[in-house]
Design brief:
heterodimer; A: 319 residues; mainly alpha; 71% helix; B: six-stranded mixed β-sheet; five-stranded mixed β-sheet; 24% strand
């Protein structure tokens, strides 16, 4: 397969996944903002989406204050913000358009249709009573894209690059969503383990559609340790880091066809760490620190994938 | 020439429906306008969703646009089509023989059938091709020949497109759309299918591979996403299951062309290129081309890769060569041309120039090297000022222009909000030359959507229709 094609397929899938996860990040933030609290802390949740997507600086350069209205606009409809939902939809479509010959007509129609529809969304849809249905719609489009992909695409290398993009992006995003909780302050130290704390962790679970799964697995109250365990270490949880890295490792092995390379090794190492890891060890290190490390490792893996597969043909013939 | 007596594809002069249009006429009568309008809107929505769009040069705004699609098909009886098919194949055979000849012995020039300076002084004559032997001696594997009907319904060849003719994807997509919208009409008449075009094209491209190659790797070379025909490039590559490549995806080493893949370099044998000659290879032609592949022309001349179409085919479809095509048919095939040329005045000739300048308000004047309907003067619909400006351009360089009578192009009904209305059309069938010369029954019907307009080019607001070859 052409290196450029592989790269387009991978980024197409990453941008669809990112679009969904931006919606999820906003969703969790919004839910947290509804928890009753001290008026002095109003709007402080809205720093979280900016912090965890690394966009606080460009935001503060253009908006006077951090509040729900500004952040929602910036993360949803702002075309100059590369991780906004509309930008992700556009980037996914541009990548898809470059590889139309390698995706099915149904996949293209989902991506193109999403782009056409999202352009009709205005700030009116960002008001509270319509917000949730917008996020639901974005998630549905992403679900539809994945379903159509699995349901119509030949299981060849194009499919594997597509899936690789999905899971690497999802690992990145689940990490960031878990980290939201770190960035959202509790009113006071006494609130740790209190009602507000509980609702915030519940919001994290809901944002990754894991609330029911949590109940089923633990049949007990929500504790930070268990939420982290579910979203980091449980292999059977489709948005957990463990699950994402297992798929990532598997896709890279299939793509490499038995050839050993650094990308496979890095993914294997990350997978092994999650497969044999313990949640108390993660908390001993500090959850935020663990997540920061993981993001760094995932980015390094992304660089290695680019080097190994997307610039491979650029070596001379002799190499 | 009169403007109120066009040949109408659907109706006879007495208002009766021509028999091959009768099932369509019945359907129109039985279907409320409102319902047809809904179908048209549904079609536009589907085209948008599927992304069947094209980009228009020189427009900054809306970077992608739909080509207007008209629901009412252009219908041709099969016996008429058989005549057209024979004529088109004959023409393309002669054009390929001519191309081989001008790049080899130039018999036709020595026989005095075409003035030698038309060829050797022509910037479309590519010195790089002289003496190069191509597999099967074929230069234009893919030809799009524009036909019009005028007067009492006679067919004329308006122009030959032998470089990178486009539009075939619309032929296929329009058919798909029609079968989706009005399946019942397909049950009432026997309509020749066109969906196998990609298979014919695939066979043609494979047949053009360098002789020693057994299982050729074929790719489609596109200028990229921002080219006006990108949809078609992607569509054809997908339909044929071949790679859609851009210049940067290919490289040349030791006169061999490779594509860059995730598993390292892979050899390429045939390039179906949708990039103009001048942009193919910065080493051979325009050095500033970012679209091409350095060294491609060298590999081509060494016979290590095939290009479809060949380099230098412009010397056969140039408007200054067009008047000689009937002569080519007689010279190479020893046959009489089955299809007519439009009478053409060549402004490089003194009498033709004088006649044209004296009749500017009646004639169509075209640039010799122009295409896409850009830069032409349509005398009868032009203003005094436009004609004066054009006169100065002509006088500045008469050899750059030809003129033709303003043909009273035939009309075909289109669906408008008030019902049906006649509009002018032309037809571009595609002729493929591989092991043999083959065609899909039909082609792309282009229609001038504006009332009275004679310009059907999509870049100038023209639309398209499905084209049906029907058995009686």
């Amino acid at each position: 397969m052409l290196s450029r094609t592989a790269s387009n397929l991978y980024w197409m899938a990453r941008y669809v996944e990112r679009m969904e996860n931006t919606a999820r990040i906003l969703d969790v933030t919004y839910r947290m903002s509804l928890v009753p609290k001290d008026a002095r802390l109003a709007d402080q949740e809205w720093y979280a989406p900016l912090n965890i997507t690394g966009t606080l600086y460009p935001f503060s350069g253009r908006f006077d204050e951090v509040n729900s209205r500004g952040v929602l606009h910036f993360m949803t409809l702002d075309r100059d913000n590369p991780s906004s939902i509309v930008s992700c939809a556009r980037a996914a479509r541009e990548n898809a358009r470059a590889v139309r010959g390698h995706i099915t007509a149904e996949m293209w129609e989902v991506i193109n249709g999403t782009w056409l529809e999202i352009q009709k969304v205005t700030d009116v849809e960002l008001t509270s009573n319509r917000l949730m249905s917008l996020f639901e719609w974005v998630k549905e489009r992403s679900h539809l894209f994945r379903g159509v992909t699995v349901g119509t695409m030949l299981s060849d290398q194009a499919f594997h690059f597509n899936r690789l993009g999905t899971f690497m992006e999802r690992a990145d995003n689940t990490t960031r969503i878990l980290d939201v909780k770190y960035h959202v302050l509790l009113p006071s130290i006494d609130d740790v383990g209190g009602a507000v704390d509980y609702y915030q962790w519940a919001a994290v679970l809901r944002s990754v559609s894991a609330f029911a799964a949590y109940r089923r697995v633990y049949r007990d109250v929500i504790t930070p340790l268990r939420v982290a365990e579910l979203l980091i270490l449980r292999d059977d949880m489709p948005r957990s880091l463990h699950h994402c890295m297992r798929e990532t490792y598997e896709m890279l092995r299939l793509i490499s066809g038995g050839v050993r390379n650094e990308a496979v090794r890095l993914a294997g190492e990350a997978h092994a760490g999650l497969h044999f890891g313990r949640v108390d060890a993660i908390f001993a290190e500090g959850l935020h620190e663990y997540l920061t490390d993981f993001l760094r490792g995932n980015a390094a893996l992304g660089d290695e994938v680019t080097r190994t597969f997307f610039s491979a043909g650029r070596q001379s013939l002799a190499a | 020439m009169s403007f109120d007596s066009y040949y109408n594809e659907m109706y006879l002069a007495d208002g009766k429906v021509r028999s091959h249009y009768q099932p369509l006429a019945d359907w129109i009568d039985a279907t409320p306008n409102e319902r047809i309008r809904q179908m048209r809107d549904a079609a536009n929505m589907l085209f948008h969703r599927v992304g069947i769009t094209f980009a228009v040069y020189g427009e900054d705004s809306g970077d992608e646009r739909l080509i207007p699609f008209d629901m009412l098909p252009h219908i041709i009886p099969s016996r008429e089509w058989e005549m057209l098919e024979r004529g088109l194949k004959q023409r393309v055979r002669a054009l390929n023989l001519y191309l081989h000849d001008v790049y080899h012995d130039q018999d036709i020039l020595r026989a005095g059938k075409i003035p030698a300076e038309r060829i050797n002084g022509n910037k479309l004559f590519k010195q790089e091709m002289v003496g190069i032997d191509l597999p099967g001696g074929i230069y234009a594997q893919i030809a799009g020949i524009d036909l019009v009907r005028a007067g009492a319904g006679e067919y004329y060849v308006l122009e030959d497109n032998l470089r990178t003719p486009s539009g075939v994807s619309y032929m296929i997509e329009n058919r798909k759309m029609m079968m989706r919208l009005v399946p019942d009409l397909f049950a009432r008449q026997s309509i020749a299918p066109v969906e196998h075009y990609p298979d014919l094209l695939q066979d043609t491209l494979r047949a053009s591979a360098p002789l020693q190659v057994e299982n050729p790797v074929v790719v489609l070379l596109t200028p990229g996403q921002f080219n006006s025909a990108y949809f078609e490039h992607a569509f054809l590559a997908q339909q044929m299951g071949i790679e859609l490549v851009e210049g940067a995806d290919l490289f040349v080493a030791d006169d061999t062309v490779y594509m860059r893949t995730t598993a390292g370099p892979q050899r390429v044998d045939v390039v179906y290129r949708r990039i103009d000659d001048d942009f193919l290879d910065p080493k051979a032609f325009r050095a500033d081309s970012m679209l091409g592949v350095p060294g491609l022309v060298g590999a081509y001349r060494a016979g290590r890769v095939s290009l479809c179409n060949a380099i230098g085919t412009g010397v056969a479809d140039d408007k200054s060569i067009y008047p000689f095509v009937p002569e080519m048919i007689r010279f190479y095939l020893g046959e009489e041309p089955l299809l007519n040329n439009v009478p053409t005045w060549q402004l490089r000739n003194r009498e033709d120039l004088e006649y044209t300048l004296a009749h500017l308000d009646e004639l169509v004047v075209k640039e010799v090297h122009g295409s896409g309907g850009y830069g032409m003067l349509i005398g009868p619909t032009s203003s005094e000022r436009e004609r004066e400006a054009y006169r100065l351009r002509i006088l500045d360089s008469p050899e750059s222009f030809i003129s033709q009578p303003t043909l009273s192009l035939s009309t075909c009904p289109i669906f408008v909000d008030e019902g049906v209305a006649p509009r002018h059309i032309d037809l571009r069938p595609f002729v493929l030359s591989g092991k043999e010369v083959v065609m899909c029954p039909g082609g792309l019907t282009r229609v001038a959507m504006r009332e009275g307009s004679l310009v059907v080019n999509s870049s100038q607001g023209g639309g398209t229709k499905d084209t049906w070859i029907v058995d009686k």
